[in-house]
Design goal:
Blueprint (H helix, E strand, L loop, with lengths): L6 H9 L4 E4 L5 H14 L4 E6 L5 H11 L3 E5 L7 H6 L3 E6 L2 H10 L4 E4 L5 E2 L5 H11 L4 E4 L5 H9 L4 E3 L14 H9 L5 E4 L7 E4 L2 H11 L4 H8 L2 H6 L24 H20 L9
Helix pairs in contact: 1-2, 2-3, 5-6, 7-12
Length: 299
């Protein structure tokens, strides 16, 4: 949750029983250090830092994580294999986000402690495989814990992920509408208004496709792609758009990263309440399944 994974939300999630993650995104190392220290002022519970591997500050952010003694790191947007040894030597638990079984296996061999298997339903940068198909294959392919991500927005999604063999879930879009999230109220309202087909994917030609809520910006981006714009031209067009949408609340010209479960989000609540309700719903679903007849239809 680049721009939104700040100390306010991170500490609230950790205090509520989850694992809050600071979203480093493309932020400079000084910002990451500040967020780590502010989070520690608000909670003594575990939290981590998500490192975006496409950031120009990757090495500097890793140095900050090590200097500040952060115990958990997740990574996204690439292969973190080259960085894992240094993190492991410092005792950091490493949980890379992957979109393929092959990368999951490779990172397990490199020393990853767990894998976040993220399906294409997620917001932001995505892969090509759905969560339902990806998670069980990653579970079968590695011997370390697997966390499911992408398309999970309530207790039903948590129960489904557990049934696929995951040992937990990672959620982003649902927490856009946590009270503690600093997202602009305009963006939160757009998420609340979203329906099942509210998101689109752009950027396939760049090799880094991104899922966002559809708006004027995504339509313009898609038109530029169709017109043969280069990756450099598309990158320049996208500069600053994420902050414009998420923080400044420009719903038409900004990038509104969100997953396909946006249509499930119907209210703004404290993070702790969101977590509690999701867990309680999952427990009810699992209990019901334990007493229900399960059948399979053949076509």
């Amino acid at each position: 949750m680049a721009w939104l994974g700040t100390h306010e939300l991170v500490s609230a999630v950790s205090e509520g029983g989850g694992l809050g993650l600071i979203g480093a995104g493309n932020a400079p190392p000084s910002w990451v250090r500040e967020q780590i220290r502010l989070t520690r002022e608000r909670t003594d519970k575990p939290f981590g830092v998500n490192i975006m591997l496409m950031s120009p500050f990757v090495r500097e952010v890793i140095q900050v994580v090590l200097e500040e003694g952060v115990g958990i790191v997740t990574t996204g947007g690439g292969n973190p294999g080259v960085y894992i040894p240094r993190l492991k030597e410092a005792g950091v638990k490493v949980m890379p986000v992957v979109s393929s079984v092959a990368l999951a296996k490779r990172l397990e061999r490199a020393g990853a402690d767990a894998i976040v298997a993220e399906g294409m339903e997620s917001g932001g940068h995505i892969g090509e495989t759905t969560t339902m198909a990806l998670v069980p294959q990653v579970v079968d392919g590695v011997d370390i814990p697997v966390v499911a991500a992408g398309g999970i927005g309530d207790g039903r999604g948590l129960a489904a992920a557990l049934s696929l063999g995951a040992q937990g879930v990672q959620m982003g879009t649902r927490f856009i509408c946590a009270q503690e999230c600093i997202a602009h109220i305009n963006f939160k309202k757009r998420v609340l208004e979203a329906r099942d087909r509210a998101t689109v994917v752009t950027g396939y030609t760049t090799g880094h496709p991104v899922r966002c809520l559809e708006n004027k910006m995504t339509r313009r981006f898609a038109a530029m792609e169709a017109g043969g714009a280069t990756a450099a031209e598309l990158e320049r067009f996208g500069e600053g758009k994420l902050q414009l949408g998420l923080i400044e609340g420009d719903l038409e010209n900004g990038s509104l990263m969100a997953g396909q479960i946006a249509g499930l989000v119907k209210d703004i609540k404290p993070a702790a309440v969101i977590i509690r309700e999701i867990v309680e719903e999952a427990e009810r679903v699992i209990a019901r399944l334990n007493t229900s007849y399960l059948g399979v239809a053949y076509g």
